[in-house]
What we know:
Shape: flat
Number of helices: 15
Distance between the termini: 46 Å
Oligomer: single chain
Structural class: alpha+beta
Mean pLDDT: 86
Order of helices and strands: HHHHHHHHEEEHHHHEEEEEEEHEHH
Low-confidence stretches: 2-12
Number of strands: 11
Amino acid sequence: MTAAAMPLADRASMPVGWRRHLCALAAVWAAILILFWRDAAKIVSIWLESSTFNHCLLILPLIFWLAWQRQAELRRLAPTAWAPGLLLVAAGAVAWLLGDAGGLGLARHAGLVLMLQGAVVTCLGKAVSRGLAFPIFYALFLIPAGEEAVPVMQTITADISMVLLGLSGVPAHIEGVFISTPNGFFEVAEACSGVKFLVAMVALAALVANLCFRSWSRRILFIAASIVIPVLANGVRAWGTIYIAYRSGSNAFAEGFDHIFYGWIFFAIVIALTLGAGWPFFDRKPADPWFDPRAMQPEDSEPGSLRRLMRTAAAAVAIAALPPLWSAALASTAAPPPAEITLPEIAGWQRVPRGAGRPWYPRFAGADLLRLAHYRNSAGQEVDLAIAVFARQAEGRKLVAYGQGAAAPGGPWAWTADDVAPASGKAEILFSHGSLREVLSFYRVGSILTGSPAAVKIETMKVRLLGGPQRAVAILVSSEAPAASASARPAINAFLSALGPVAPLADRAAGLPEAR
Length: 516
């Protein structure tokens, strides 16, 4: 999605073939952006609002700059409409449709970028697209992706910290992403996972690899190092914070030092060291051509015909328009949510007010209904039952997504580990100020009951693409461990045994008593 920038340096001398192909490309881009304006606006809002993706604001001008650098070689090529480029547009359309069906913002955003990239290949042709291969590829960094790696990066950072704490003689204990020392308690939180720096570093590494290297082996090694070094560096940073707190006896001082040093100095040093280490191996000279036009197209080639260009551009727009039309048609079949959820009466259990202790509540942003009840049996066992109902999933209204589920971000309880899952469910252990809580989650989507986020997304795609019950329901049963060495699972199991099958409860909560 870059070619419009390249031969604009001298409009008077721009060949007619280039002008009409660039105008066609601009028209196709405009049509696609109008069709998917909500996704385009969402992408831009993520760039502006999430510090993880602030660097994406630089990617777009960099793409046009990269195309501009190639203008001397590009002028020697003749653009021509290329029908096989429609395959990339179609791939983007399918990705968007799957993302819309499964409630996957990442897939929709990737699909939009792929359609814009496909428009370049379609309107400018094979030879020009080969010349613009890297700028077109670099547009993938416009997609706000990477936060999905936060849990993995939290775990890796915590593990590296523990190794370094052991080597430096600091006694420490780890519980998931929580690390305790004799004089402190630390959480490797989402903001400390290092994903923000890693995402930006990969984008920078790809740019440097293209600008400064000709050898593919050197490019791959540099990018690999640019991934490994930030991961290790973030572990060192987390260790340093804990070590300073341990030696100084002041957690507040260590945290303040971490914010200043991490935010302004530490990773700037890491970038400088990474670039400095790669500098001696740079093998591309500033005057080297970006590509050989003669290897891509005969020198006397003529631009493609206007009629062919118009047909191909129209086909690109038509392909892009199909997914939102299909999605809108199926959306009209969704049933409205019930007015209220009737919480179940369960033999041997009574609904009671929440007692003492730290309260628990799940997070399901955008749910049409979310209800929470507290139950107790004659043996004194206590559980919480949460029911969330979505009449239809959409952007900002997803059953399974980052920040959705048993532990509300910033809430009193934090996820610490997964536990042995029950049939058709999943189990998680939450931690809060020395207390443990277990939560079993069951998701009802389409015709299945599952605890697998992947299964939820696949089933959601199925009913959104082919039709079926559009509702999505979460049933969560939770209990706090009665003592430090005890388990909350017996109370949960007793409650589920008295409750009976979970799927009918989910269907009744969604107002679908006949659903199976």
